Amino acid sequence: MQCCALEIEDVPTFTRGKKFQLDDVIEAQQFDRDTLSAIFEVAREMENIEKKSPGSQILKGYLMATLFYEPSTRTRLSFESAMKRLGGEVLTTENAREFSSAAKGETLEDTIRTVEGYTDIIVMRHFESGAAKRAAATAGIPIINAGDGPGQHPTQALLDVYTVEREIGKLDGIRVGLVGDLANGRTVRSLAYLLAKYQDVKIYFVSPDVVKMKDDIKDYLTSRGVEWEESADLMEVASKCDVVYQTRIQRERFGERIDLYEEARGKYIVDKDVLKVMQKHAVVMHPLPRLDEITVDVDADPRAAYFRQAKNGLYIRMALLKLLLVGW
């Protein structure tokens, strides 16, 4: 009897030439490593697309609606820029909560059913957690979650992980400090879900007690074998980490409890003293906008990656629009 060894390759969950497997982008948990690698590969291609090149017209004839029930600058403009850079067109509403039929009492489901008749894809930001999932269950066209209250912000998490890979050169074996408003920060929640896809990752949570990371994320990380630790010492955490991911304390999430907001604000600030203890290869990231949680004198340091991070959002969103509308 003759034995032979067969080489078995991991079969990716996507194939070139076929429509991208995701119908919507709703939450970070929906991505696996193969899909993340695919999105990042296309994002790198998007970095090289120039004005008036053939690649800049791949979404010509497509129309995107941005339906934003909460204020946004970076996310809305980067999606609109992404669509236009690929030859598509945009319908936009900047404050749908006040200046759409929602102000008259129209349900989200009715709004989605109406808007999908005008466009090919909807990018939505909403003030309620779970709103994007409701929209996706209603719509027959792709829905992209651009942030749903304190729930998730999956495209921000994608650009964050893409930035880490570009800046640090790897995603396995990294140490990440999540700092600031971890209870209400949809960006850090989504990022934690994505980081759990990688091997030997450790996450440090640094926040005031009133905005500590919620148990659902901690339980999820534990279930995935991801090591995490809570700390009150930003300097110590910064000295250990490859990434210090700072967030602002979000006043809009506190309602009338301004006393709790003032208690949390200003407790953890990234300044030059923090930079001094950070490793040379490490980076500071922030989803923006910032207030005073990163001092402006940090901006000149090459480890300040937050504006490069924002630019990466354009490439990730270009990639998602291409993959969802025309596939590979």
From TrEMBL:
PROSITE patterns: CARBAMOYLTRANSFERASE
Keyword Transferase: yes
Superkingdom to which the source organism belongs: Eukaryota
Transmembrane segments: none
InterPro entries tied to this protein: Asp/Orn_carbamoyltranf_P-bd, Asp/Orn_carbamoylTrfase, Asp/Orn_carbamoylTrfase_sf, Asp_carbamoyltransf, Asp_carbamoyltransf_Asp/Orn-bd
Keyword Transmembrane: no
One term of GO molecular function: amino acid binding
Domain Aspartate/ornithine carbamoyltransferase Asp/Orn-binding: 172-323
UniProt domain Aspartate/ornithine carbamoyltransferase carbamoyl-P binding: residue ranges: 24-165
Pathway(s) of this molecule: Pyrimidine metabolism; UMP biosynthesis via de novo pathway; (S)-dihydroorotate from bicarbonate: step 2/3
Enzyme Commission number(s) from the entry: 2.1.3.2
GO biological process: 'de novo' pyrimidine nucleobase biosynthetic process; 'de novo' UMP biosynthetic process; amino acid metabolic process
Known catalytic reactions: carbamoyl phosphate + L-aspartate = N-carbamoyl-L-aspartate + phosphate + H(+)
Keywords (A to Z) from UniProt: Allosteric enzyme, Pyrimidine biosynthesis, Transferase
Assembly and interaction partners: Homotrimer.
Protein role: Catalyzes the condensation of carbamoyl phosphate and aspartate to form carbamoyl aspartate and inorganic phosphate, the committed step in the de novo pyrimidine nucleotide biosynthesis pathway.
Family membership: Belongs to the aspartate/ornithine carbamoyltransferase superfamily. ATCase family.
UniProt name for this protein: aspartate carbamoyltransferase
Originating species: Durio zibethinus (Durian)
